[in-house]
Design brief:
Elements: E1 3-7, H1 15-30, E2 38-41, H2 56-67, E3 70-76, H3 84-91, E4 102-109, H4 117-128, E5 138-141, H5 148-172
Parallel strand pairs: 1-2, 1-3, 3-4, 4-5
């Protein structure tokens, strides 16, 4: 299975990128995948995202995202939701583009009062694009960074069986 990490943080090499990579690795390990996840870091594509025709690197990133079996979609929480950078990128995908993808939403946040944003804002966007989105998404608090492995491991324990089941179901239905 092909794991891909999509990061909507406008800062390169962000903490969001680090957490998303670790989250993907934790889920992949529990789902029996030993390969490293590829990464699309939108901070590197930001300058070309609003061009009328996508630059080759943006077009390539869109193709990568649409082809992923498992997509970890990560963003810092800005104004109680995901970043505009992530939204602009995902708006370039046609409806149903993620129909063969299992997507895992992940928001990094400073305040627990934004915890519902992962389920109320990011999940519906991914579902609208056709993705299967197992429960729960991850609301990762910045205060949890010192225990990232424990937090991500516990979350991966919950979602990895759902990821495996969703991929098996898609394969049996001939979707994947």
């Amino acid at each position: 299975m092909a794991f891909l990490v999509l990061v909507g943080n406008p800062r390169p090499q962000s903490r969001t990128l680090q957490i998303a990579r670790e989250a993907a690795a934790a889920v992949a390990e529990r789902a029996g995948d030993t390969g490293a996840a590829d990464v699309v870091d939108l901070s590197l594509l930001a300058s070309g995202l609003l061009d009328p025709a996508p630059a080759p690197e943006v077009a390539s990133a869109l193709e990568q995202v649409a082809a992923a079996d498992v997509l970890v979609v990560a963003s810092p929480t800005y104004k109680a939701t995901y970043t505009g950078l992530l939204k602009v990128f995902l708006d370039r995908l046609p409806g149903g583009a993620l129909a063969s993808t299992v997507a895992l939403p992940l928001l990094v946040m400073g305040d627990p009062k934004h915890s519902l944003a992962v389920e109320v804002h990011l999940r519906p966007l991914l579902v609208e694009l056709g993705a299967t989105v197992p429960t729960p998404g991850l609301a990762f608090l910045e205060s949890q960074v010192p225990d990232a492995a424990g937090v991500l491991g516990a979350w991966a324990d919950l979602v990895a069986p759902q990821v495996s089941a969703a991929l098996a179901q898609r394969k049996a239905a001939g979707v994947a």
